[in-house]
Structures are given as structure tokens and as C-alpha cells.
Amino acid sequence: MKTLIQNVTISKETGLELVDILIENETILAIEAAENKTFSNTAVDQSLDGQSQLLIPGMIDVHIHGANNFDMMDGTTKSIQEVSKKCLETGCTGFLVTSVTSSLDALLTMIDRTKEVIGQEEGAKILGIHLEGPYLNVKRKGMQDPTYLRNPDLKEMATIFDRAGELIKMVTVAPELPGCLELITYLKEKNVVVAIAHSDATYEEAQIAFQHGATHITHCFNAMPPIHHRAPGLVTAALENDDISVQAIVDGIHLHPGIVRLLHKIKGAYGVILITDALQAMGVGDGAYEFGGHQVKVENGVARLKDGTLASSTVTMNEALRLSVEMGIPLDDAIKMGATTPTVILGEKKLGKIEVGYDADLILLDKEFSVIEKILKGHRK
User: Fold this and answer.
1) To 5 degrees, how large is the angle CA 93–CA 94–CA 95?
2) How far is CA 268 from CA 17, 247, 314, in A?
3) Which of 90, 116, 93 is nearest to 26 (CA)?
4) What are the tens digits of pLDDT across the range 186-210?
5) Quick check: is 277 catalytic?
6) SS3 per residue for 205-223
7) Residues 71, 74, 277, 359: which is the catalytic one?
């Protein structure tokens, strides 16, 4: 099957280009300047005129909990499917099913439901699982349920891997907890991205964690100590280490625009990734929700616990992309942060770029960054 996408603007490091793209089955076959009309006589099965709108690689959300009134810890396949659909609607073609701190039984149930949905997704593709917890520090719990927070347990983690296999792609931990350095070593041996957050780690403890194999920071600046000039902490350790990448919740609430620009200036587009960290209120709106064992109230799109603690977000990936650009991040870099860098971190070889040989997972956006066309595996959805 051949698909022709005409008159679309793509972003490259050298600037914007108006191109035509030929897709064969699920793969980008050729890209040519639109003015050349290279494919004018090519027989195709379907075509799309992009009318000069912006075409980007499908974005990847490595940290999302829910959407459309569904939490992926609900224990149902429907909850995961609803998130999959909402992800695609908002410019995301792949995601990690993300847990919150819970009982082992609840986590294993989520893993089982994820395995049932993979290959049958109604929207964005599941690229794996992100375990956010349960080995997190109660001092920086945020919206994590303290009932289930616990110290690292290698036997428990082995049980999780027995059920999930290679689906576990990322695990967020607090490295200062007893036994966590051994856990980090265990996870690296399984090629898992080890991330740090909900942590009270000192600068020195963070550096030791990096030496053991941690390489990523979950929702940087959130649920961790702020930078102090005599206690630089986890954030400073991450920022000065070129090998450490960071997540950013760019919703205008979790991070000041100056911090977003600072992260980009220090880390560059290949060191920062956009995430939603969204709860089930994404796509629904204001109201009362139960999330992670807590009552959460969403007002004006901001989710908080009763004590005022931020509880995830309601931002979507296309909104995060728009906000990044509005905050001063160059468009090409913002696209990399939303689409390319996550695939590099996850080791995906054919996602995240509009280049020949890459998967045809593509999103067409208007000037307001609203999604107007979705192409997944070469097919319009």
C-alpha cells in the first residue's frame, strides 16, 4: 500500500521545508521538495494534501497515568484503550503505560491488562511500561500513596519482571532508600532506563546513583529538593552531568518558563523530553477525581490534593509542544523534545523522525498546534 502526503511543512535543523512524502506500507519511502512534484505520476492508494501545515513525527509520552476519566491502574483493558485513543488524538503515537505506587497485586493486574492490549491498541501504540514507584521517598511523595511506599525489594522486582518480561522500559526510584543502589544495578542489567524522582537525595547520593547506572530524571524539579547554594541536591547533580536526561512537565504550572528555558539551555533538545504526567482528567476538564488513593480536585485545568500539592497534570502533548514554543524553545528543538529524544532514550530505532526508513507515525498540526490529521503505521486514523 502506498500513501502520498503532499504539501506539508517539516522542521529541520536548517529551517522549515515544504515537502511531499511517499509512504509504502508502514515506512517512509521517500521525501522530496514539494516544488519538484516528484511523485505526480506515482500510483498511490491514498493521498493527503497538507495545505502547507506542520507535519511532525508522532510524539512519545513516557509518563502518563490516565485520560478520558480512566486511570490505567483501574485494572481494565478499557482504561488503557481510552488512554491510547486520547494520546493519538493529541499528537502522541506511542506511550509508556505508567503506574503509581500501589500494592503488588494492583501492579501485576495493570501489567496483565497491558499485555492484553498490546497489538490491539485503538490509538497510540504501547511501547512498554514505566513503573513510577513503589520505591520512593515518603518525604517527597507528592501524590503517591504513602500506604504503599516501601524500600526496594529485589525479590518483589523479580516477581514483577516474571510477569512483565521486557515490557518494563523505565523505573523511577529514590536512590537514597536502603537497597536502591543494588536495585539500580539489577535494572541496568535488564536494559531498563533508571529514573530518579520523589526523592530527597543529596547531591552526593545522586552522583553515586548515576555511577551505578541511573540516567534519567522524572519530572525534573518536581518531587525533589530545590537547588540551594550550599545543598545543591539532585537537580544540580543532574544538570551538570551531560549523560543525564530529564523530563519536563511544560503546562505553565509545574515549571516556570524560565526553568523550561534553563533546562533547554543546559541540556539541549537531546537532554530534555516533554511529558504529560496526566491523570484521568486529561480531556475531561475540571471536577473531582480519585487518583493514586487520593481525592484530587481539578480547577482551571490544575490538579491538586486537598493540601494544595500538585497531583499530575491535565496537559496534552500537543499543548506541551505549543507551550514550549511560546516559552521560547525553538520549534525544531521542541519537536525533538516531544518526539525524537524519547525514542533515543527508549532505544527505539525507527520512531521519532521524519526520515526515509522510519516508521510512518506522523501528526499534522495547524498553526495553533491542534491535531488535524493522524497517521499511524502509514494509515490515516
Assistant:
1) 135
2) 22, 12, 25
3) 93
4) 999 999 999 999 999 999 999 999 9
5) yes
6) HHHHHHHHCCCEECCCCCC
7) 277
